[in-house]
Amino acid sequence: MSRNAKVERKTKETDIILELNLDGTGKGMIETGIGFFNHMLDNFTRHGFFDLNLVTNGDLHVDAHHTVEDTGIVLGQAIRNALGNKKGIKRYGNAIIPMDETLVLCALDLSGRPYLVFDLPLTAEKVGYMETELVKEFFYAISYSAGMNLHIKLIHGSNNHHIIEAAFKAFAKALDQAVQYDERIEDVLSTKGTVD
User: Fold this and answer.
1) What whole-number distance in Å separates Cα of residue 73 and Cα of residue 194?
2) Beta-sheet strands, E only, within 49-134
3) Hey, how many other C-beta atoms are within 10 angstroms of the C-beta on 195?
4) Bridge-partner residues for 152, per DSSP?
5) Among 179, 180, 171, residue whose Cα is nearest residue 46
6) How far apart are CA 149 and CA 144, in angstroms?
7) Burial class of residue 33 in the structure, from the number of CB atoms within 10 Å of its CB (0-12 exposed, 13-18 middle, 19+ buried)
8) For residues 106 and 43, is the Cβ–Cβ distance under 8 A?
């Protein structure tokens, strides 16, 4: 069964076309107009083994906020749509990713109930041309539009580039784990009989 989704979203602030394959090989074409954000999404794609084609045209003459947040909204919708009824998936995923001096933990539950716990202290205003405060906005948007309980925590680290990159990689690995099928799960992994 193919687990693909295509989402298009157009507002006065952004125009986004996104295609996602959960069972990909880590390839994609990503263009958001923000170099560092492209780099982070490329890490998400490659380390999660997702295929992602994304074009975001945002009002960067204002700032990067709408571009980053709306991309998170659309990616979250695509994840939710590609998962369908969630039958047979592991549902939970976690990863602890090192990057030089940095260690970041990510744990998530595709429960249908959105919640973000974000404990990633960042000390620089920007990395490249992207404001570091937008990292939280991105993950918040994903968690709420995907219906995902998402925890991201810095264990230790000091370099803001390393911290953010480790967070994106940890999120990718945790999501890859959560969307995998387990032959022992006949329906959905829930005592309620539904995950939405």
Assistant:
1) 23
2) 51-58, 92-99, 102-109, 115-119, 126-127, 130-131
3) 20
4) 106, 118
5) 171
6) 8
7) middle
8) no
DSSP 3-state assignment of 178?
Answer: helix
pTM of the model: 0.94
CA distance 132 to 57: 20
**DSSP state for residue 193 in the 8-state scheme:** S
Answer whether 93's CB lies under 8 Å from 66's CB: no
Q: Which two tokens stand for residue 38?
A: 């492209």
Whole-number pLDDT of residue 134 = 98
| Angle (nearest 5°) at CA 192 between 190 and 196 | 75
Helix, strand, or coil (residue 78): helix
pLDDT given for residue 183 in this prediction:
82
Alpha carbon distance 179, 136 (integer Å)? 23
Dig out the tokens for 5 from the structure: 């989704």
Report helix, strand or coil for 176.
Answer: helix
Q: Which two tokens stand for residue 186?
A: 């006949």
Stretches where the chain sits below pLDDT 50 are none
Our CA dihedral for 172, 175, 179, 180, rounded to 10 degrees, sits at: 60
Distance linking the first and last C-alpha atoms of the chain: 20
Please return the burial class of 83, using the count of CB atoms within 10 Å of its CB with bins 0-12, 13-18 and 19+. buried
